[in-house]
Amino acid sequence: MPRPQLDRTKLRMRSLTERPNKVAIARDAIPPDASPEALSSPARDALAECVTKIRAARNAGRPVMLAFGAHTIKNGLAPVLIRLIEKGWITLLATNGAGIIHDWEFSFQGLSSEDVRTNVDQGQFGIWQETGFYLNLALAVGAYEGLGYGESVGKMIEREGLDVPSVAALLKVARMEAETNPDLAAAALDLSAVVRSSEIGAGFLSIPHPFKTYSAQAAAFRLNVPFTAHPMIGHDIIYTHPANHGAAIGRTALRDFLTFASQVHDLEGGVYLSVGSAVMSPMVFEKSLSMSQNLELQQGRKITNHHMVIVDLAESSWDWQTDGEPPSDNPAYYLRYCKTFSRMGGTMRYVSAHNRDFLLTLLQELEK
């Protein structure tokens, strides 16, 4: 017998226009030439080494990957990320589901970051019509079009709309492709369910994004640079909306995982930057590297010359570079991201710094 499930169709959705926000992107965006706070001496040394490694990697045609938590976007650093990919220093951007949402809300309305405490108390946190509807529709369309998660949203922002097939056309595709291309057939059925339940017409659905110049996702789509998203079911506010479709999430997120893993597979001589991501970045990286080593070892090779720079606010009294992994009775052992990356071979440097100061300094040193 099926277990009871919460009925999202009964939720009272409110418009984003009714929501107070803490961050206004036109006011709070960080321009690439802004002055960062000075880094500590150990951080400066690690960053200087990082700049040398990035230059060498790009000169050799090797990847430089940047994974980051949602605060990098919420702190207004999208212009810095955009400059890094425009100049070719970064070959892939990766974030979690919340990073996708903040970037989209900024591009759509110029505002993001609600009061969680107040809105949970009022039963309103995350229950916003535009964020839930447009992002879930973009992912369902992107799943059907064969796109990844970040690419689906970036395309919607850049084009300021979505191509929505008719239900009849989608059902026809499902019937025709069921035997030879079942993934496409299933994605067509998924999208047909979202379109039917949303009662939207077929054709180009115009969705203005007046602040899209601040969108890292739109820039990545425009420049053909992978922007991968690595969400977890239930973590993000788009799961509150009835248009949310688990299969579409899975299809687009899996494509992004494999795109991410493909660059890890090429990381010999490359650089991996993890900025303010305590869980997503280390967890996705370790699986990607394990798969990559499996493939390389089959060819008599191994990925050993990769440089990893891990940035977060927490101080670490443990010298990961000299002393390796701490014992389990030492609190440093539970600094999860350091522990994970210290196990990944190559070289690992930990930098205690604010994401704003690290990324600004990195960009400005690379541009010298």
Properties at a glance:
single chain, about 375 residues, alpha/beta, Deoxyhypusine Synthase, six-stranded parallel beta sheet, two-stranded antiparallel ribbon, 16 helices, 10 strands
What topology emerges from the helices and strands here?
Blueprint: E1 23-24, H1 25-28, H2 41-59, E2 64-68, H3 70-74, H4 78-86, E3 92-95, H5 97-109, E4 111-112, H6 116-121, H7 129-145, H8 149-159, E5 161-164, H9 167-177, H10 182-198, E6 203-206, H11 216-223, E7 227-229, H12 246-265, E8 271-275, H13 280-298, E9 307-312, H14 320-323, H15 336-342, E10 347-352, H16 355-366
Parallel strand pairs: 2-3, 2-8, 3-7, 8-9, 9-10
Antiparallel strand pairs: 1-4, 5-6
Describe the protein in words.
By secondary structure, the chain is of the alpha/beta class. The protein contains 16 helices and 10 strands. The chain has a single domain (8-366), classed as Deoxyhypusine Synthase, CATH 3.40.910. The chain has helices at residues 25-28, 41-59, 70-74, 78-86, 97-109, 116-121, 129-145, 149-159, 167-177, 182-198, 216-223, 246-265, 280-298, 320-323, 336-342, 355-366, and strands spanning 23-24, 64-68, 92-95, 111-112, 161-164, 203-206, 227-229, 271-275, 307-312, 347-352. The strands form 3 sheets. The chain has a 6-stranded parallel beta sheet, with helices on both faces. The protein has a two-stranded antiparallel sheet with strand order 1-4. Helix 13 (280-298) links the parallel strand 8 and strand 9. The mean pLDDT is 96.
